[in-house]
Amino acid sequence: IGHWCHGKRHGKGSIYYNQEGTSWYEGDWVYNIRNGWGIRCYKSGNIYEGQWENNMRHGEGRMRWLTANEEYTGQWEKGIQ
Question: Structural domain tally of the chain?
Answer without folding.
Answer: 1
